[in-house]
Design brief:
The structure holds two protein chains of two kinds. Chain A has a single domain, classed as Ferritin, core subunit, four-helix bundle (Ferritin, Up-down Bundle). By secondary structure, chain A is an all-alpha fold. Helix content of chain A is 66%, strand content 0%. Chain A is globular, with a radius of gyration of 19 Å. By secondary structure, chain B is mostly helical. In chain B, strands 1-2 form a two-stranded antiparallel sheet. In chain B, strand 1 and strand 2 form a beta hairpin. The radius of gyration of chain B is 22 Å and the shape is globular. Classes of the chains: A mainly alpha, B mainly alpha.
Chain lengths: 272, 317
């Protein structure tokens, strides 16, 4: 059960951290219509995160005390466990530190310019689309339900980011160069999506989780067709930026959490 | 028809409460007044995204974060309707942005105040959106059709915003001592600027008379301000908080609350660019616009290319 919780948290953390990044654009987009579009996408991810966190909290609350203890390195969560209190979606989002977060490194990378945001979205949305399609078949009905609901959203996200890759790639000389540079910069982070951790392997073997490694060739085919249409080049080189799924993060995550969790940390235990 | 006939037809429509539509003849000044007012209103929505956007990444729960994000997104949508309404009068969105960025066009001064605590998300919803609704409900019957129709849509969403703001404060006021303190502090800071949102008092409002005649405006600034004070006092009592005005008291004779004198010096200072956040707000908007230039250029270039390709495809066929 512990691994199912960790697996669910990985999905939740991806959605929360990535959605948080997108929400930073709100009010600062290059065109008003795109400001609205990005906020919409950010809201979709926040909704997904909540679905996964609620599920993880329910699974956690059902555990016997001995198994709850020590699952997280969070002092505040341990306190709750000690007092015999149940936890909820907010406890998981707001009371864990970076070494309990399992999101992919790509989701915590900064927004950069518009091309960087588009490149990050393009790699991640294309992956999510394939991933959620499979996750719908999970024997964990809650995971399957969130995946099914999210797939409609993710299908739109993928279209949105693909269209922007094409528009920027095949737009002006300047936008072409910026788009190519952004694809190159984020390329090293794409390997992590398909490397299976022990937790993922166990979940995939038990038909609860998705075999991400098996999605790689389709993902590559999908992105190549868009990159071609955009008159861009598929980046080359190693893809060694890895570790988020094993709770080893970049420096960026700490700042995201410092901001995200500020009120809960400064004014603990209050209702808002 | 002579200009005089046109003017007469226009006046008749106004008197008979028939909406003026984009293709109708209208006096130049009516057009100018509307462009000024609608674009100012649109800019207020867009600049207004910033003080609340300031707390999206720090909202205290996932639910609050989602609601705030959706709310700020609504403001962007309102900006969009309003820019479109103004465009029917013969000005482009880019021209309006230009006026905003150069300081020629104004936006509501309230957004030049800083949001320094989470309670401000509540106070803005309750007081700022509450004051805006007073103005906007009246504008649903304004004489210019596209503006009135945009306002009907906007008002529906604004009343939801006001409720969510009030609910934030209600929740906090039922919480701990420190949360109540935060709420009171926020009300102290937002109360007077909210009263200023109705604009100068009637004897100092140069545009009011003509706007009333044209039925662009339906009530004077002071009338709307009084109405706002009257409803807000009661709501504040339910929160168990105090409005920061020692002169505030019920006047049996008038059937209204009396309230203290607004600090007009502060009002004009902020209008003229010297408020706490004028510089930041305008910089944020200008930066978004300038950083987005290459993106808009690319989108335009791409759509031109597509048109060209479609043309040559048709020819080839």
């Amino acid at each position: 059960m512990k691994n199912r919780i960790l697996y669910t948290l990985q999905l939740a953390d991806n959605a929360l951290i990535y959605g948080h990044r997108l929400s930073e654009w709100c009010g600062h987009g290059p065109v008003l219509e795109q400001d609205i579009a990005l906020t919409n996408i950010s809201l979709d991810f926040l909704g997904q995160a909540r679905g996964f966190y609620q599920h993880a909290a329910n699974l956690f609350n059902a555990l016997p005390l001995a198994e709850k203890q020590g699952m997280f390195l969070s002092v505040a969560l341990e306190e709750k466990v000690k007092k015999g209190e149940n936890i909820d979606e907010d406890d998981l989002a707001y009371l864990r530190d970076g070494w309990d977060f399992r999101n992919l490194l790509i989701t915590e990378q900064p927004n950069g310019d518009w091309a960087t945001t588009v490149a990050r979205a393009f790699y991640f949305d294309t992956f999510n689309h394939l991933y959620y399609t499979q996750l719908q078949k999970s024997n964990d009905l809650q995971l399957a339900a969130v995946a099914e609901k999210s797939l409609k959203e993710v299908t739109y996200h993928k279209r949105w980011s693909s269209e922007w890759v094409i528009r920027l790639g095949d737009g002006t000389q300047e936008s072409h160069e910026k788009m190519q540079a952004a694809l190159n910069d984020l390329w090293p982070f794409t390997g992590e999506m398909f490397r299976m951790t022990d937790v993922e392997q166990e979940m995939a073997d038990g038909k609860t989780g998705v075999d991400a490694a098996a999605l790689h060739s389709q993902w590559k085919q999908d992105i190549v067709s868009i990159i071609d249409e955009a008159t861009l080049q598929l980046p080359e080189g190693t893809r060694l930026q890895d570790g988020g799924k094993d709770v080893r993060h970049s420096e960026h995550l700490g700042y995201i959490l410092a901001e995200l969790q500020f009120i809960q940390r400064a004014y603990p235990g209050m209702e808002w | 028809m002579t200009v005089r006939d046109f003017q007469q037809a226009f006046d008749e429509k106004i008197d008979r409460e028939i909406a003026i539509e984009p293709r109708d003849w209208m006096p130049d000044n009516y057009r100018k007044t509307l462009i000024r007012q609608i674009s100012q209103h649109a800019h207020s929505e867009i600049v207004g995204m910033l003080p609340e956007g300031n707390w999206i990444t720090r909202a205290p729960s996932l639910r609050r974060k989602a609601v705030l994000l959706a709310k700020v997104q609504d403001e962007a949508g309102h900006g969009l309707y309003l820019y479109s309404a103004a465009e029917t009068l013969g000005i482009t969105r880019d021209e309006m942005y230009e006026q905003l960025h150069t300081g020629k066009a104004k936006y509501s001064s309230i957004f030049n105040y800083p949001t320094t605590s989470w309670a401000d998300m509540g106070a803005i919803g309750w007081l700022v959106d509450g004051a805006a609704i007073m103005n906007q409900v009246a504008l649903c019957r304004t004489s210019y059709g596209p503006y009135a129709r945009a306002m009907v849509r906007i008002c529906k969403e604004e009343s939801f915003h006001q409720r969510q703001g009030y609910e934030i404060l209600l929740q906090m006021s039922k919480g701990t001592e420190i949360q109540r303190k935060m709420v009171q502090d926020s009300i102290n800071r937002w109360w007077w600027p909210s009263l200023m949102m109705f604009g100068p008092s009637d004897d100092n409002s140069p545009n009011t008379e003509q706007s009333m005649r044209w039925r662009v405006k339906r009530f004077t600034n002071d009338e709307l301000r009084q109405r706002f004070v009257d409803v807000t006092v009661e709501q504040c009592n339910i929160l168990g908080m105090k409005l920061p005005d020692p002169d505030l008291k019920w006047n049996e004779e008038r059937g209204h609350y009396d309230f203290g004198e607004i600090n007009w010096e502060e009002f004009w200072n902020v209008v003229n660019g010297n408020g706490p956040c004028n510089k930041e707000r305008l910089e944020a908007r200008t930066k978004a616009w300038e950083n987005g230039q290459w993106v808009r250029d690319a989108a335009l270039a791409y759509s031109e290319k597509r048109k060209q390709r479609a043309k040559s495809d048709t020819k080839a066929a």
